[in-house]
Amino acid sequence: MDGLDETLRTIAGDMGVEVFGIAAASGFDNPAYQGNRPQTIMPDVRSVIVIGVAVPRGCIEPLPNGRAEYTNTLLAGTVTLRAAAFRVAQTLEREGHKASIVPIEGSEFGYWYVDRETLKADVSIKYAAYLAGLGRYGVSNLLLIPGIGPRVRMTAVVTDAPLTSGSPSANLKADCTDCLRCVEACPADALHEDGSIERERCRDYMFNTLGGLRCGLCVKACMDAHR
Ligand code: SF4
Ligand code: SF4
Fold first, then answer.
1. Residue of 16, 125, 130, 220 with fewest CB within 10 Å of its CB?
2. pTM score > 0.85 for this model?
């Protein structure tokens, strides 16, 4: 990594970030990627910096009890990541580059940030993390990170800075065929054995049935599978 990469990693780490990786923006050109490309929000984007924190186990284990605490803990992670991402963006701009911060998750605040038809965000942070070599997708559509599993909250900074990017270290999808605990645990039948997801079912469950609290049962099921 060059000096700026290390500076950004250090700044983020000092603010509580536990997961750090850089994806080349060109990686979103892969035909296998079905989401929106970062070039639509920054035409000359070169790099997507992913930062994340591990979500504490203590707020996941009691689910479905403690959903208010689970939701609040996720939002505490959001605060941590937003502050860290802002410092990263500030540093990039002071070095003469451009930077913009991708919302923590597409579904936050009632899917405010996503396309209302597709329920897809402007940039998939999970795919950026995959490109950066941080982990791979499970059947749950969650990103599974070595040592953390599915308990991760992430954001991303898009920039025109030509940083040194990581590369995927594993296949796009994890081999989950002997498990499927997340599929069985989903109360909205949103997850399927083939790895597909019906996002509108997940959205309707969280924002209609739960009134905006987060569900997290797929995270809990997968966390149990990774013990
Ligand atoms: S958060 Fe809940 S409703 Fe959404 S996919 Fe996971 S288990 Fe299903
Ligand atoms: S719960 Fe099992 S099937 Fe689902 S993503 Fe985790 S490891 Fe894969």
1. 16
2. yes
